[in-house]
Amino acid sequence: MPLMMSEEGFENDESDYQTLPRARVNQRQSGLAWFLLGGWKVLCGSCCDCLAHICRRKKELKARTVWLGCPEKCEEKYPKNAIKNQKYNIITFVPGVLYQQFKFFLNLYFLVVACSQFVPSLKIGYLYTYWAPLGFVLAVTMVREAVDEVRRYQRDKEMNSQLYSKLTVRGKIQVKSSDIQVGDLIIVEKLLCFVVFFPGSCFIRTDQLDGETDWKLKVAVGCTQRLPAVGDLFSISAYVYAQKPQLDIHSFEGNFTREDTDPQIHESLSIENTLWASTVVASVNHRNIFGLLDLELNRLTKALFLAQVVLSVVMVALQGFVGPWFRNLFRFVVLFSYIIPISLRVNLDMGKSAYGWMITKDENIPGTVVRTSTIPEELDFINNPSTLTQNEMIFKRLHLGTVSYGTDTMDEIQSHIVQSYAQATSQPSSGSATGATPSRKTQASGPKVRKSVSSRIHEAVKAIALCHNVTPVYESHAGVNGETESAEADQDFSDDNRTYQASSPDEVALVRWTESVGLTLVNRDLTSLQLKTPSGQILSFYILQIFPFTSESKRMGIIVREESTGDITFYMKGADVAMASIVQYNDWLEEECGNMAREGLRTLVVAKKCLSEEQYQDFENRYNQAKLSIHDRTLKVAAVVESLEREMELLCLTGVEDQLQADVRPTLELLRNAGIKIWMLTGDKLETATCIAKSSHLVSRNQDIHVFRPVSNRGEAHLELNAFRRKHDCALVISGDSLEVCLRYYEHEFVELACQCPAVVCCRCSPTQKAQIVRLLQQHTANRTCAIGDGGNDVSMIQAADCGIGIEGKEGKQASLAADFSITQFKHIGRLLMVHGRNSYKRSAALGQFVMHRGMIISTMQAVFSSIFYFASVPLYQGFLMVGYATIYTMFPVFSLVLDQDVKPEMALLYPELYKDLTKGRSLSFKTFLIWVLISVYQGGILMYGALVLFESEFVHVVAISFTALILTELLMVALTIRTWHWLMVVAEFFSLGCYLASLAFLNEYFGIGRVSLGAFLDLSFITTWPFLWKVSTITLVSCLPLYIIKYLKRKFSPPSYSKLSS
Fold this sequence. Notes:
Blueprint: H1 7-56, E1 64-67, H2 93-102, H3 105-116, H4 127-160, E2 163-168, E3 171-176, E4 185-187, E5 201-205, H5 207-210, E6 215-219, H6 222-225, E7 238-242, E8 254-258, E9 265-269, H7 292-319, H8 325-335, H9 343-361, E10 369-370, E11 389-399, E12 404-405, H10 410-426, H11 429-445, H12 453-466, E13 471-474, H13 482-492, E14 498-501, H14 505-516, E15 520-524, E16 528-532, E17 538-547, E18 555-562, E19 568-574, H15 576-579, H16 589-598, E20 602-611, H17 613-628, H18 633-644, E21 649-660, H19 664-673, E22 678-681, H20 686-695, E23 704-707, H21 714-725, E24 730-735, H22 736-745, H23 747-755, E25 759-763, H24 767-780, E26 786-789, H25 795-800, E27 803-807, H26 814-818, E28 821-823, H27 828-868, H28 879-886, H29 891-895, H30 905-910, H31 913-920, H32 926-950, H33 958-977, H34 983-1002, H35 1020-1023, H36 1026-1053, H37 1057-1062
Parallel strand pairs: 22-25, 23-24, 24-25, 26-27, 27-28
Antiparallel strand pairs: 1-7, 2-3, 2-4, 5-6, 7-8, 8-9, 10-28, 11-12, 11-21, 13-14, 15-16, 16-17, 17-18, 18-19, 19-20, 20-21
Helix pairs in contact: 2-4, 3-4, 4-9, 7-8, 7-27, 9-27, 10-12, 12-14, 17-18, 19-27, 21-22, 22-23, 27-32, 27-33, 32-33, 32-36, 33-34, 33-36
């Protein structure tokens, strides 16, 4: 069912309905003839489509009614509160793993070849020659999958076994988290870690939903707060009616109803009454991860198979298609099956495990965990959404219009505050009430009177200390009985025991700053707050009204009455775009806001307005009437508040810095220089996201920023996209709501424009939107995506990406547990990508190509051998030699390529352009593949023809001669490929050579022509003669020396970029 249809679509639907009866008449007229001539296909297809639709139909989401403490009353059956990250169970493990393996062409091909050996007429060699390698591959894969599955099961069991306190009629009991049901009353003991002054409220964090680590005030239902004891919850009959689950995590609608009273009690529920939303996890959709290298090799193996079939057809054609040519064709296919080496998957899987071990053991990125052994080389081709800050705000700048104070001049502000309040306390108490206050009123009502710097600082600091939603809380060290109450007076003003909680970390930073300069917030409840001056005097204020911050208004306000004087003041702070039209005319605000924004500071404009008692009473009456109105309540309330927001006195401009993680700026610059496009997806507000993008240099200083205006329909989105299209080389900032509208109508156009931007910032994104953006980039671009996050709200994005990286941080370990790679700091990404990602890809590419070369060269020799012996489908080498060739004779030197590196890690970090070169010219492409094919054909032909020509008189020893030259050639080719030698590479070379020489001595029956029973075995005295040694050396030299010369000339006249740096 489409979400949206055009008008033409609706018209077409109506016309279809109008013509439907006519179509039915035509069908009835045709009758049996219609059924026999194809109607049965239509009916069968319709039935299958209907069944498929029923099976795939998603469960319809409905509103739910939850009874307090009575899960059995719930009419609908809800899923268990259990986390399950496992892919398989005991029954599906073996079929599931086999399906995942055999859906790859490479493994399916070898399964067919191995099964063909059960047919006598198609049998080429011993069964173990084909089944042993395939069984080994499957065994390695199953063991690896089983280990990963057991780890996932242990993590799930640990999470599902966590104990929680459940409230029942019999009291408090302990239950596992997996046994919690909808309707249970759970006592969250770890939530309230502070003593809060007003009952029925607490602070929670929603970082696992929207990524915001600040504390949010939540209010309990008033009806339950009036109960004498917690156990009385079971004495009432009440239920909660909640709206159906939805994607919007910033809103909630519901009702609380108590039935056992007359009349029934109804209370509306909103987002302020919820602790969590949609936190039950029933199951997780698993992605089956296959790296880019796996997909490229899968394409190359298909090309190899095509070449194998063509070669087999050529051999049968040269035979003249005589006799049972089809059987001979299949025998040739089996005979040339080594063109596609089964050891390719084994070597690559073992290589990936080695890369993971290297990443884990890297001392420069401690704490890094590789949670999947499938895609280390996937650290490549990346779009990068990420969390960049520590969520720790620091007050940096205070600007009063004529004077600016920074971190190094805060002591001047402190001295002004101390001096200001010292003068106020030194005056007689009668004079302070009658003399000091009128002077402030005079200054406020007559803005032309020039104030002193000291008084302006005093008013600015006082406004910042009053205009907020911050609550001071104190840790409870005493008991929860009378001891706490008796100690409360001492505890209220204990600076060491005080912490601040608020819905915004910016506000906490401002209040902490006022505390540092001498004006301290010591107490707050719903109706009042108290400040402590430097001299210890307590100033009390009554909170008359609060206007909270919203993303639409971009400002918050508070009306307070000072207890000592009775003065009523309206304070307001907000973004410069919202406050510029509210404050009195000035000539400095816009310029200074721009200067602070360029420094990456979050700016807030602070203003005030003094109100008389009559003015406030008039406002209060109009405000209460607006709040009681049924229609357009929000608009009427906003209009009343805006009547106060006129000609306000501008007090100051503040600048707060959100501290970045260590080395964020150089890391982002490193990624940009490597050709990686960076997108930042965040749940923060637009202004916050823009500030982070500037401070982290995600957007460079000389780049323009295009803020995508809010759009709500197709026409607005079209106009805004056209305006954005005219911009060049500018970063894009867009909100989640506007993004959803653009993707609904202009998905392709938006993604095309956004991908041309140097950086993109998406703010107010829900977790689902983050995952949607990642999938869009995968669909509309040819690039790979990597998602980087540090919170539970990033899990869906991480799992949607080709590669997921989780950062263990303040928001917990959910992201790191769900990711493919877990790191401890953002700066580690640079080394993870530039060093390990680059090396893993280049090593795997070299390893894969070399393993394919190893198979192609022996297949070429087999083709030459068969063509000389009248195109007979007879194997050149016995089964043991073929198994040994792919394993003990060449496996260790070839696998040692995983230790190779072209440049040192320091050089790779210093020149990220090397990574950029890697993304342009693939190390594993059809071009390099064809080069290796030519090398294999050349070397295979030289080895076979050389053995036949030079040893014409000793033809019985052609197996030993050609196989010895083949092994030596392979060992020399490994040495030719290696760029940086490691001592293990040398050991692998000599170990393999020693194993082969031992085989010549002790397994000589395998090196003869024909069957062992005929006595065709190797003469040991022959291989020690001088002619054998120099002729084998000559064949090997002819096969390898030209390649050495070509490599030297290419390096001399057209060196790769890495060789320029390494030299």
